[in-house]
């Protein structure tokens, strides 16, 4: 029998955990160079203290509070304190500009802004005069100091120590009156085009997500999850809250560039990630393999084959006989376990979302014994719509529909969704909300896809991102980019094809690997620009493109390319905080390079 949604109200579940989990670790964060735990009891005390402090600032029911910070334990403490007083959180990506942040604060009408990080604080101080609703800023890091400002500025440490016992009754009343119909959060879509829209998610949305994940996700008390994707995104935010609802320990990493070190230090059981992380790990392994002695390379590939047999046996394929099991044991001892150890050695599964994961990359991880669970979801559906479940994984698919969610394929092969996890709508945007739903109430996702014979979802592309060449051929850019990005020498790629007579590409090399190759070849260069313009380097990429594009149709293959001397940049608006390409910005910024590619004669080879 399913748990009633009322019993899965986030605030109720968390208060039960605070009361019963005692000294067990709830949150793990780094203080200096040391990881430290915050117990469930202490966690609850801090959430209550901050709830009372927020009430002392005269926040009414369903008032808005923004959070502009990198991942931290304080981020979640603030999030749950906002929820306890029935206010609404509005996260802001820590990489947002002051202008982008001001837009969200103004659109939401946020009265209070939590800030961590000097960079974010500096931006916050510049936007104060642009935001009429803003009444207070709360500094989440002790290194930040209040300054003279048009709004009140408080230190989180001081608010927690002040206690505000006079607000206890008011807090208890807010908790008692909590409703599933209350809005929990406004999550502003990072958007590849246009202004961000505030997605309204309520407690019913989240309760339904928890109940559906409980059916197949093996996670609970004593388990550790590493949070390194931004908490301002629905994927990591939703997973973090699920981890805590299940009584697990959530470890916070504020710098995603340090994820490799954190994996060894934390040794998590679970970690959410976007495909780019898996692709980079895969590329790094393949690059090392290219230069390894032939006997080591052979052993590695043989071991992967044994691991793949295990994966198929665990997911509905042929069972393994005694000989296969013995071979697997040897492969695991010599190779596979050592790869797993690089990720901490305790990974049970890794949810993946945000974009398509190359099937070859997925197969590699499954073969090693690192269970990647690819799914499909979006902010508007409180994340997960479909997922690959342990024991039912289909490589190349996004898995089966969650038990309380409905999926259908509509016009133009568009994936449409219905269920309790679907958003209420876009804040202050009734016309956009209406346009996003069909007349019979299904959410239009904007993604193309189909369902296979097992009911598993396959994503083909974004409807808005499909490119049509001047020859009338449709190009799915993510498919082409994913294929090329398999190469260890490719860090980023953006293809161009719309209204053009062939496909071209802007390619950012993986400079560490490329510079290593150049050194071996004795190539002299002054800087990265000099390197990418080198004739030998261009010839190298020409040859490698031939190999990685073999599975593409001729009309899909990249005919011309330009190597760039820098990565696509979030601060310049070229990619979103979830690493998706903003194609319009890229096409405008690199217009000269793009036009130059179409002044050339396309080589016949591709």
From TrEMBL:
Q: Where is the AMP-dependent synthetase/ligase domain?
A: 19-427
- Top-rank taxon: Bacteria
Q: Does the keyword ATP-binding apply?
A: yes
Keyword annotations of the record: ATP-binding, Nucleotide-binding
- Output the Gene Ontology terms for molecular function: ATP binding; long-chain fatty acid-CoA ligase activity
Record-linked Gene3D superfamilies:
N-terminal domain of ligase-like (3.40.50.12780)
InterPro entries linked? AMP-binding_CS, AMP-dep_synth/lig_dom, ANL_N_sf
Q: Which GO terms describe its cellular component?
A: membrane
Keyword Nucleotide-binding recorded: yes
Q: What is this protein called?
A: Long-chain acyl-CoA synthetase
């Amino acid at each position: 029998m399913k748990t009633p949604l009322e019993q899965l109200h986030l605030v109720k579940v968390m208060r039960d955990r605070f009361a019963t989990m005692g000294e067990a670790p709830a949150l793990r964060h780094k203080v200096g160079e040391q990881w430290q735990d915050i117990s469930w009891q202490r966690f609850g005390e801090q959430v209550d203290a901050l709830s009372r402090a927020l009430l002392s600032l005269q926040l009414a029911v369903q008032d808005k509070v923004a959070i502009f910070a990198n991942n931290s334990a304080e981020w979640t403490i603030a999030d749950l304190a906002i929820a306890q007083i029935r206010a609404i959180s509005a996260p802001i990506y820590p990489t947002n500009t002051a202008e982008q942040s001001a837009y969200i604060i103004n659109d939401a009408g946020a009265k209070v802004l939590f800030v961590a990080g000097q960079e974010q604080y500096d931006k916050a101080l510049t936007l104060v005069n642009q935001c009429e609703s803003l009444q207070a800023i709360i500094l989440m890091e002790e290194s930040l100091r209040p300054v003279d400002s048009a709004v009140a500025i408080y230190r989180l440490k001081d608010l927690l120590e002040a206690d505000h016992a006079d607000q206890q009754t008011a807090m208890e009343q807010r908790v008692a009156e909590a409703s599933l119909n209350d809005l929990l959060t406004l999550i502003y879509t990072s958007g590849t085009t246009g202004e961000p829209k505030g997605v309204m998610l309520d407690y019913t949305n989240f309760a339904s997500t928890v109940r559906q994940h409980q059916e197949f996700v093996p996670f609970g008390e004593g388990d550790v999850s590493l949070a390194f994707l931004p908490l301002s995104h629905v994927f990591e935010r939703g997973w973090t809250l699920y981890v805590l609802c299940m009584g697990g320990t959530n470890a916070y990493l504020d710098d995603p560039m340090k994820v490799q070190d954190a994996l060894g230090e934390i040794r998590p059981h679970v970690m959410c990630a976007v495909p780019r992380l898996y692709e980079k790990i895969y590329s790094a392994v393949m690059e090392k393999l290219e230069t390894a002695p032939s006997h080591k390379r052979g052993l590695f590939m043989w071991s992967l084959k044994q691991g793949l047999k295990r994966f198929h046996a665990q997911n509905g394929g042929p069972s393994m006989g005694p000989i296969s099991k013995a071979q697997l044991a040897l492969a695991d001892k010599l190779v596979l376990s050592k790869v797993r150890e690089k990720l901490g050695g305790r990974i049970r599964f890794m949810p993946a979302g945000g974009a398509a994961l190359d099937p070859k990359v997925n197969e590699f991880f499954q073969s090693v014994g690192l269970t990647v669970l690819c799914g499909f979801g979006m902010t508007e559906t409180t994340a997960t719509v479909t997922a690959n479940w342990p024991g039912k994984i289909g490589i190349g698919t996004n898995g089966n529909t969650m038990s309380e969610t409905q999926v259908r394929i509509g016009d133009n092969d568009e994936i449409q969704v219905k269920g309790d996890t679907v958003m209420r709508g876009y804040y202050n945007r009734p016309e956009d909300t209406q346009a996003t739903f069909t007349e019979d109430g299904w959410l239009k996702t904007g993604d193309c896809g189909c369902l296979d014979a097992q009911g598993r979802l396959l994503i083909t592309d974004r409807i808005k991102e499909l490119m049509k060449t001047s020859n009338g051929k449709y190009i799915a850019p993510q498919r082409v980019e994913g294929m090329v990005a398999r190469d260890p020498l490719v860090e980023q790629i953006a293809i161009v094809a719309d209204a053009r007579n062939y496909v071209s590409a802007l390619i950012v090399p993986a400079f560490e690997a490329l510079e290593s190759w150049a050194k071996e070849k004795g190539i002299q260069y002054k800087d990265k620009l000099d390197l990418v313009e080198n004739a030998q380097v261009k010839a190298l990429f020409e040859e490698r493109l031939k190999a990685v594009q073999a599975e593409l149709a001729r009309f899909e293959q990249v005919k011309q390319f330009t190597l760039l001397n820098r990565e696509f940049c979030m601060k310049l608006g070229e990619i979103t905080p979830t690493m998706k390409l903003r194609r319009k910005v890229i096409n405008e910024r690199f217009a000269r390079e793009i036009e130059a590619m179409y002044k050339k004669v396309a080589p016949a080879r591709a």
